[in-house]
């Protein structure tokens, strides 16, 4: 009996050491370099979303023809969505490393959830909604070219001609319906991702000790 007690103590000591070593891997303050990289990634995501979603498109559509606008967007959006995926993945990974799950409060749980949602929405746009909308857009443009449409500048030009084509051509009507569905889903994902990034940026700013 006297021999079994030290063995039990040894096992307990070993378990405590393992717990401590595991905890040390995930706890602790991030270095200044990690803080800078984390803030840069989050700011990059937010700035990119603001520029592409609210500035670049509205400025461009008033300067070039609709078909040129569509072509530019088809080249821009894949880069945009994949950049968002990369920065969201990096931000989520960095936040998770320095915020162990067992120590999270509800604010931190919310932030991790927001990072995850931002990553998922960017992924959906990059892999499905974006490419699908682009493919349908080019099919629409082929029909529009046959009827002399698409060379005007601005969204309001020849609106009646587009409506007439939609009424007369069932194939074009189906294209418009499918495009509207994918484009709407893509915009919804983009908006949700923007809200998630904005909320996380606000949380980060509120936790700064000073500017």
Structural class assignment: mainly alpha
Sheet bearing the most strands, described?
A: none
Radius of gyration: 26 Å
Number of strands: 0
Task: Return the average pLDDT rounded to an integer.
Answer: 86
Shape: elongated
Tell me the number of helical segments per DSSP (H or I, 4 or more residues long). Answer: 6
Distance separating the two termini: 63 Å
Q: What's the domain count?
A: 1
Q: Detail the poorly predicted runs.
A: 1-26
Helicity range:
over 70%
Beta-strand percentage range: under 5%
Order of helices and strands: HHHHHH
Entry summary:
The protein has 211 residues and is mainly alpha-helical. Helix content is 82%, strand content 0%.
Please describe what this structure looks like.
The chain crosses the membrane at residues 36-58, 79-98, 110-130. The protein has 211 residues and is mostly helical. It has one domain (30-206). The protein is built from six helices and no strands. It has helices at 4-26, 32-61, 66-97, 106-146, 159-168, 170-206. Helix 2 runs antiparallel to helix 6 (170-206) and helix 3 (66-97) packs antiparallel against helix 4 (106-146). It is elongated, with a radius of gyration of 26 Å. Mean pLDDT is 86; it is low at 1-26.
């Amino acid at each position: 009996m006297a021999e079994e007690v030290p063995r039990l103590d040894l096992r307990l000591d070993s378990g405590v050491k393992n717990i401590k070593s595991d905890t040390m891997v995930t706890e602790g303050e991030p270095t200044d370099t990690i803080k800078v990289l984390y803030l840069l990634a989050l700011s990059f995501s937010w700035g990119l979303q603001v520029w592409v979603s609210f500035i670049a498109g509205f400025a461009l559509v008033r300067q070039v023809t609709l078909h040129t606008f569509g072509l530019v967007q088809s080249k821009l959006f894949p880069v945009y969505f994949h950049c968002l995926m990369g920065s969201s993945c990096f931000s989520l990974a960095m936040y998770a490393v320095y915020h162990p799950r067992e120590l999270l409060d509800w604010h931190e749980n919310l932030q991790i959830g927001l990072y995850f949602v931002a990553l998922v929405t960017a992924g959906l746009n990059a892999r499905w909604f974006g490419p699908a909308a682009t493919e349908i857009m080019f099919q629409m443009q082929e029909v529009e070219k046959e009827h002399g449409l698409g060379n005007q500048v601005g969204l309001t030009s020849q609106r009646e001609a587009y409506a007439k084509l939609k009424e007369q051509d069932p194939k074009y009507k189906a294209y418009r319906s499918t495009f509207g569905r994918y484009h709407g889903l893509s915009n919804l994902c983009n908006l949700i991702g923007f809200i998630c990034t904005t909320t996380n940026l606000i949380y980060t700013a509120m936790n700064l000790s000073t500017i």
